[in-house]
From TrEMBL:
PROSITE patterns: HTH_LYSR (PS50931). The keyword Transcription regulation applies. It comes from the Bacteria. The keyword Ribosomal protein does not apply. Belongs to the LysR transcriptional regulatory family. This is Transcriptional regulator. Keywords: DNA-binding, Plasmid, Transcription, Transcription regulation. Residues 5-62 form the HTH lysR-type domain. One of its GO terms (molecular function) is sequence-specific DNA binding. InterPro entries: LysR-type_TF_proteobact-type, LysR_HTH_N, LysR_subst-bd, WH-like_DNA-bd_sf, WH_DNA-bd_sf.
């Protein structure tokens, strides 16, 4: 006798035992009555025992089949319990989706502050450029850029600004008398995904200072990659303040002239209201909004009083 009968055969047998007829078992599993009968034959062949018999109206379990079904039912109940355990284990995980660079260069760096406040809340961070459908339930919250597509529940986080930054070694021993001197160094450009619209670049910053920059030496598709290139000393980048805070604090990046340009649109937080029932979700939601407000103050140009 085979120790492991086919799973489909066991499912057909269990359905017959639960429903009492081949027709109802077929409806329960979404298959044809013929498929049920075929699987029952396979099971009897596998266990080498007679489990079902005709009673004049259809198939029913034999006494041995009834005993066997009681054991099989326990097994399927255990499967159901295991699935429920998994659902319960994942039910309170708060899933936050962000653009890749937003995750790596902004909110991901702040999560230690959150865990210090809410050590019991569990958060899963997902970096994705695809906008999730929050109504489907796989993602609870989303940090996104721009206002062309607003989910029903959303709030503005902050407006970021860009500023020319570089590694200190790039300008070491070089005297920069004015902002236009930056344009004599290699320039790193960031080409955004077209769905986010045009991002301000060196041409726009050049207009701010009344100069015409040369063409950029290198172009990157991700802000994070361009910032990493600047950290490696490859040139100046128009870095978003939100993405370079730690590097500015530690002196790994410097701002020779603090002349900032705002991004055309804000960053937003969207959420599924049903997700706020999860453990710690409301507190996490408030914390994210607070971090956004704080970042907006940091990103804004310094007052010139």
């Amino acid at each position: 006798m085979s120790p492991l009968p086919p799973l489909k055969a066991l499912q057909a047998f269990d359905a017959l035992g639960r429903t009492g007829s081949v027709a109802l078992a077929a409806a329960d599993l979404g298959v044809t009555p013929g498929a049920i009968s075929q699987q029952l034959r396979k099971l009897e062949e596998a266990v080498e025992a007679r489990l079902v018999e005709h009673d004049g109206r259809g198939l029913r379990l034999t006494p041995l089949g009834t005993t066997y079904h009681a054991q099989i039912r326990q097994g399927f109940a255990a499967f159901a319990d295991a699935a429920a355990t998994l659902r319960e284990a994942s039910a309170d995980v708060i899933v936050l989706s962000c653009l890749t660079t937003v995750l790596g260069k902004w909110i991901g760096r702040r999560m230690r502050d959150w865990t210090a406040l809410e050590a019991t809340a569990r958060v899963s961070l997902v970096g994705s450029d695809a906008e999730p459908d929050l109504a489907q339930g796989g993602v609870d919250m989303r940090i996104y850029y721009g206002g062309r597509r607003h989910p029903p529940h959303h709030a503005e986080l902050f407006v970021d600004h860009i500023v020319p930054v570089c590694a200190p070694a790039l300008i070491e021993g070089r005297h920069l008398s004015g902002p236009d001197d930056i344009l004599r160094f290699p320039l790193l450009h960031i080409a955004w995904d077209p769905r986010f619209g045009a991002n301000p670049g060196w041409a726009e910053w050049g207009r701010l200072i009344g100069a015409r920059p040369p063409a950029a030496n290198l172009t990157y598709g991700l802000s994070g990659s361009a910032i990493d290139a600047a950290l490696a000393g490859q040139g100046f980048v128009l870095g978003q303040i939100a993405f370079i805070g730690p590097e500015l604090e530690t002196g790994k990046l410097v701002v020779p002239f603090d002349l900032r340009l705002p991004l055309p649109e804000p960053y937003y937080l969207a959420w599924n209201p049903d997700s706020l029932r999860k453990t710690g979700a409301r507190a996490f939601h408030r914390w994210l909004l607070g971090e956004g407000r704080a970042q907006g103050l940091v990103s804004a140009p310094p007052s010139r009083g």
